[in-house]
Design brief:
Strand content: 5-15%
Radius of gyration: 17 Å
CATH architecture: 3-Layer(aba) Sandwich
Order of helices and strands: EHEHHHHHHHHEEH
Distance between the termini: 14 Å
Strand order of the largest sheet: 2-1-3-4
Number of strands: 4
CATH topology: Glutaredoxin
Structural class: alpha+beta
CATH superfamily: Glutaredoxin
Amino acid sequence: MRLDFYFHFGSPYAYLANRQLPGLRESHGAEVVYQPCDILAVMKSVGNVPSPACPPKARYAGIDAARWAALLGAPFAMNGAFMAAARAGQTDFNTLIRAALVARDRGQAEAFTTAVFDAMWGVPADLVSAEGRAAVLAKAGIADDGLWVEADGPERRAQLEAITPEAAGRGVFGVPTIFVGEEMFFGNDRMDFVRAALNGARQAGAAA
């Protein structure tokens, strides 16, 4: 049973969804396929508007995400230093997303994705400097080994750009988005439906 997880490190809800994926894998035997994407590009292509464009929505999302984190027993604190550096043009989320593509190809998708999400929304850590990023990965047992250099190369830039029409074509309009087969679920609050879909797929497989 394959579960496709479309995510972006700028989404606290994607962080919360990621916290729940290991349980789904263990309880349902789901194969989690990590699908990093430039969600702002996807949203633009389908006519959606990100939360920061609506200040009341953005304020509420922060409160709501904190409530969900408390419910899940997850640490929750926004990485203000990274956000400030991104606003100043010193870094950007796509650097992290491209690095996630490299990590996925190296068989380190889960460890990398969890480490970066935790540093972004759980317990903030330095994701701006080369030394800080290396420390975040080392804590997760991942060696840098040219990962960030490859992430900045033209091949990974082109790969990320190509993901946008593919994600939009599947119906993605925001993150987190999860597919069980071709059945789509949006939001970390849809995990009960994801579990039901996994149960259905398992039962259908057993009956086949």
